Amino acid sequence: MSDRLRKTAIHPAGHAAPPARFSPGVRKGNVLQVAGQVGVRPVVGDEPPRLAGSTLREQTLQTLANVRAVLEEGGASWEDVLMVRVYLTDTAHFAEFNAVYDDYFADLTEAAAARTTVYVGLPEGFLVEIDALAVLG
């Protein structure tokens, strides 16, 4: 099988191990799928994974950083992202999330990615989860 068609797991350094058997990201050819990321800080040494904070803003910024880490490890950037899916635990967070999201992507030079937002149940304390699909040129 050529390298171009090989499916490769993407594991950024310091990324917390997933809670089940899946990869933080998978690249095949020029397609990179980032698995749902949450606001857990990168792991340092033997410390256990921990949330970036209790607020939506803190968790959203860390979640976006975690998605970006997988994109970069897979050879992509936000400019390559076509689709973002956002999972929020509370409908009341929609406006605040949009404000943080808009500010985060304010310097994006290309068209913004398509986005879907849904409301879900996440483990206690988790407020947001984000996944992304990138296609590299």
Q: Determine the structural class based on helices, strands and strand pairing.
A: alpha+beta
The percent of residues in helical segments reads 10-25%
- State the shape: globular
Side-by-side strand order of the widest sheet = 1-2-3-6-4-5
Low-confidence stretches: none
Counting DSSP E segments of at least 2 residues, the number of strands comes to 6
What is Rg?
A: 15 Å
Largest sheet report: 6 strands, mixed
- Quote the average pLDDT: 93
Q: Secondary-structure element sequence?
A: EEEHEHEE
% residues in beta strands: 25-35%
Q: How many helices in DSSP terms?
A: 2
- End-to-end span in angstroms? 21 Å
How is this structure best described in words?
The chain is 21% helix and 28% strand. With 137 residues, the chain is an alpha+beta fold. A 6-stranded mixed sheet has the order 1-2-3-6-4-5, covered by helices on one side. Helix 1 crosses helix 2 (94-104). The longest helix has 18 residues, at 56-73. 28% of the residues are buried. The mean pLDDT is 93.
